[in-house]
Amino acid sequence: MLTHFLALFLVAVTGGGAHNFIINQPPPLIDSFHVGSPITSPHIRLRDGRHLAYREYGVPKEKAKYKIVVVHGFDSSKNETFPVSKDLVQELGICFVAFDRAGYGDSNPHPTRTVMSESMDIDELAYQLKLGPKFYLIGTSMGGYSAYSCLKYIPQRLSGVVLLVPAVNYWWPSLPADVSESAFKKLSIMNQQSFWVAHNLPFLFCGWMKQNFFKTSPAITGIGVPETTCKPDLEIINQNQSPVNGTDAVESKSTNDAVYESLCRDVMVVFSNWEFDPLQMENPFPNDEASVHLWSNVQDEMCQIEIQRHVAKKLPWVRYHETPYGGHNFFNNDGWGDKIIKTLLLGDGEVNTQVHT
């Protein structure tokens, strides 16, 4: 199927103007914030001159017992609050630090962003905010690759990590072909084609998202989401009026340059050839000085369960939690946020933990 698609794609490129596909990239914005509305968010200045915007909530940092950095997912921002009860936050003394990843919200783009650079941003954020020698980390969905990066490059800074329905890469070197193919085939044809381009022809990806010859990824544009999303996720999307519900505002993002340094850059990075293979990582905490938890859901159609199960099988030091219902956004319902936090900080709440072999 992909061979046939590639042939059609090349015809479209050569017939429709390859120059536009390759050159029509967004201009990098490094030395200043996005032009437009005034910036009111607190922010730090990174070593390379970029600004990283952040938000603190929960117990004041100076009084907190636990400090948790939250890495947001795809098409999200620092303004998305982790779904935990106020009572639990006060009881345990938790300060959350959320930030806009590069290119999102009020943070500057990073045109040379990689999986590795994500951990460098987080390390510098924690240092400048004086979170202490160690902090906890939650990486949600697309923010999962940032969490994997931290496990690889800055484990000495981590007190514990949650990989919450983390993004997967179908091209991880040691991921078995049968597992990868099984998961990949569950994607819609539009997602398959778009992700294939992001991995194999990243220099054409921005142009791909602007072309009109083929339908592009519903995961990026929001167009066609109801046909490619499980019922529990659709209910949450409708309840929260999420930006992935296919509204006109999201449709316009396909021609908005700022989107290419957030959404499209995310897709290119997560499906790139990583600097390391997460399935080959050694235990970063051999003395049990910290714990790593991977939470997945059987109904998740975005980050498929078979790959998450394989990760748990290959990395026995990861504590695997599999929930039976709720889809990709299961943690927004039924008190799951509290359970996830308790498991991370207190070690209890070990519910529905299964490892499939």
TrEMBL record:
Whether Signal counts among this entry's keywords is yes
Q: Where is the signal peptide?
A: 1-18
SUPFAM superfamilies associated with the record: alpha/beta-Hydrolases
Q: Which UniProt keywords apply?
A: Signal
**Pfam families assigned to the protein according to its UniProt record, in alphabetical order:** Hydrolase_4 (PF12146)
Xref: InterPro entries: AB_hydrolase_fold, Hydrolase_4
- Give all residue intervals belonging to the Serine aminopeptidase S33 domain: 63-188
Q: Does the entry feature the keyword Signal, yes or no?
A: yes
Q: Which PANTHER family match?
A: HYDROLASE, ALPHA/BETA FOLD FAMILY PROTEIN, EXPRESSED-RELATED (PTHR45763), OS01G0859200 PROTEIN (PTHR45763:SF49)
According to UniProt, the name of this protein is Alpha/beta-Hydrolases superfamily protein
Species this chain originates from:
Rhynchospora pubera
